[in-house]
Amino acid sequence: MKKQHKLSKINLYDKFNAAFVSMITPEMKVLNSIRKQNSYSDTPTLTKPFEMPLEFINIDGVKIRVSKSVINGKNKETIILLSAFPHSIIAYSPIWNELKKDYNLFAYDLPGFGASETKSEYMSFNFQGDFLNSFIKYFKIEKSHIVAPDVGMASALSYVINYKNSIKSLMIGDGPGALPAIEPSVMKKMVYSSFWRAMFVVAGSGALIESAKNLGNVKYVPNKYELSDYKKSHKGKVANSMKWFKTYPEAIKHLDQNLKNIKIPTKIFWGEHEAILDKKNGENLNKRMPNSELEIFENCGHFVYQDDYPRFTRLIQTWVEKYK
């Protein structure tokens, strides 16, 4: 990961707007209580991200940011990590640092998210699933395991539903999949309210990143490099990001109707203190998928891969070894 000379900081405007979102979010009372128990502070969990080789490539006319680490070609298991919103693949650096020792790794910022380019036509479940198919073909990945939280979960499910594939296993969570969806207040605002989507656009990427930290982390404190990358990556893209949420109610129906057809071994993970998509969604998803098991991450929020990254790393290692 190249040194960033100019960091994009979360400024007072960002914090003010994020504080307003927190003020009107009823789930914040519980989240703040959990943070207090965890002695949550402004001190970053990690001083800086671990090294990840980052580059931009073009696949089927779409410019994306990708990171890859291939240690032994076909003799090692391959893992694909899909970015979450409004994070970027930088958020995976703690688990990447451990997994790269034993596995071939690929990660990318989804089109329209993170540092990848954005266009209106990218902002649908189906496009993201189609792109994952293109990504796998581009790198000639024959068999793999997919890790997909949040918006990445919709991408992974769309892909395995719509395409014949050789995926060995799925690790998905904290995202859309099964109906009825139990959506806390902020998710309802982004999905069902054009007014609130417009407000997020006006507030900008910094407020979005700060709000996500407030709502999604109860243990892990992002460092200035991570926050800078998230803010820079989503600058000027929030309007298109909100279009993904606008299409969400119809798009999730297709996933819901086809869950019963997914026979791939699937580990479902969910944060105990999930304030974006209630953990009941994970329980419902687990009941609906014929070859799945659910793991609830106690004392974690929406971003479980950060809040308890050592445990999340072990989850991936154990699941991959089981289904290699």
Strand order of the largest sheet: 1-2-4-3-5-6-7-8
Q: Largest sheet, if any?
A: 8 strands, mixed
What is the C-level CATH assignment? Alpha Beta
Order of helices and strands: HHEEEHEHEHEHHHHHEHEHH
- Going by helix content, strand content and strand pairing, the class is alpha/beta
Mean pLDDT: 96
Strand content: 15-25%
CATH superfamily: Alpha/Beta hydrolase fold, catalytic domain
Unreliable stretches (pLDDT < 50, length at least 5) are none
CATH topology: Rossmann fold
Gap from first CA to last CA: 29 Å
What sort of overall outline do the alpha carbons produce when their principal axes are compared? globular
From the alpha carbons, calculate the radius of gyration and give it in angstroms.
Answer: 18 Å
